[in-house]
# Entry
Amino acid sequence: MTGLPPTKTYSRFSVQRFVALNLSVLCLVLTPHLLFGANTQAPITLEQAKAQFESGKTIQALETVEELIDSLPSPGILQEAYFLQATILKQDAQIMEALTVVRQLLEEFPFSPVANSARILIAELYSHNQDYSQALLHLYKALDYAADQELRRTLFQRIRQAELSNGNPLDAIKAALNEMMLVDPSERLELEQLTQTLVLQQLDEEALQNLIEGYAKRYPGDLATIRLIEIHTSRGDEVLAERDIRGFLKRFPNHPYAQTAMALLQSFINKIKLHPHILGVALPFSGPMKPYGTDLLNGIRLAIDIAKEQWGLSSVGLVVKDTTSLTAPLRVEMQQLLNEFQPRAVIGPLLSREIRSLGHLPDDYATPFLTPSSTLLNVRQYGSYWFNTAMTSSVQAKRLVEYAIMTLGYHRFCIIHPKTAYGRELADMFAKEVIHSGGEVIAVEEYTEEQTDIGEQLRHLKVKDLAQYGLEETEETRTGEERLVYTPGFDAVFLPGQPVHLAIIAAQLAFFDMNVPILGGNSWHNSELFRWAKHDLNGSIFVDGFFLNSPDPSVQMFIQRYRRQFHREPSLFAVQAYDAATLVLETLRKGAQSGQDVWDQLVRRSDLPALSGFASFSSAGILNRRLYLLQVNNPTFTQMN
# Structure
């Protein structure tokens, strides 16, 4: 039995053509006399339908084009017929029917000469139905295929209108900016006025920042920065306003607004200098490091706000330096800040290389510098006034080993780490802490991040273990056969890797009968772990410096305040900056009147109030804070301490 193939889906128009073909064959078989001696009708043409449509005979035009489609014309004619049919249906307000036809056209003939016109038509139809997301999808695709400048201009105009209707003023501005490059000066002025209105009236802070990033040193980046300054000034957020003004003057020194910006900046500086205590900040607020700088500054600002509320400490001013938009080397800029504002302490910079470039500058000015993010294991090598509130690999290793040996009773360990700088450093710190605590490292193996099979490393590890504490015994199976059974001589294995690698290694450890507890670092703290590892790591333990679901009341207070104030989740960076600011503010509360006084307390005290509890600085300048011991329990993490 023959018929339509069961696996193919036919549209209404495909079925029409199939039926028409079968009917025509049937007529040829049953009534061949119709081919001879009868009055033959003139063939239907596309031009007929077009002429009827253009003369306003919509119904006739629609009937004509449908007859043409049913007559099985050549593919070239059929494509144009589909497009004309959809156009007529749109004109006749049959929107859904028109959508069906134009979808059929694009599905059957994706590379048709009329395909791009069809994309524009389908965008118009979706816009008519207020489905602007779908309309934009087709408009952007049409733009990709449009070479004609006039057509591109039209498409940018339609994209701009659709983005506005879809509630995306930022993307509407970007479309307008592209449109500006394709119009004459008089039309450009109109588009500039539209852009200005959108920037000043419809963009929120995040959108303004996005626009500044994309147009940092050109229009409309200047306009977006001015608007951001106005927003921050109007709500009394002078810290951010001052930061934005400095960035504006750096990027647009000859701008008409520059004089106003300078006057505003001077008024902010004068206000800051009225405070008995000033705290300096040196962090990145543009470029690829901007998200980290923003999180860090948020943590600092929240610490100051809480100190004002809880301690009545309202005498602290904040001066911010953007380390990514400097007019001079960082050392020179920091000297200027120290000379002009004489801060009690400085929080920053972000990167280890920036610390190296500043060297002994903090010592020269007797001003503590607290980096909230450097991975340096010993900041004191650059001077005694350096402090580090970041969670370094040494802090992670120390806490994890302490828990493994003192609480869990483990003494023998193996280490399997990625062949990266981070992996080697954390593995090295872990091994040193194990030995320092009286434990033993049986074997250390490494793997490349491209590897999916570490069988060779595990065999090496097994050989080393069997040479010391591991056992391999013969055991009789249920079928009477004998097999060797391996019992590891080590208590746990340390895996400081990424989630995708952990899943592979955990499964292979089980395959090699190495069924021992697994320990890890804060790289485990990622929801991707559950996607890759499933249940292979359940029960395993790792450490981190922050846990959003911690039951600790002070941590939850911090999280709720951060969410309310900044409308986002706090990161570990925000916590580390919060700690840095809180520790300095604590010294001021306890009477510090100079950088030297702040230093004295930071060095001497063991009860510094970090978010996770009392903390102190090591001789290397690293903050010894309480870390969170977290256990993997798919699909979540559980705090152990």
About this structure: DSSP finds 26 helices and 17 strands in the chain. The radius of gyration is 35 Å.
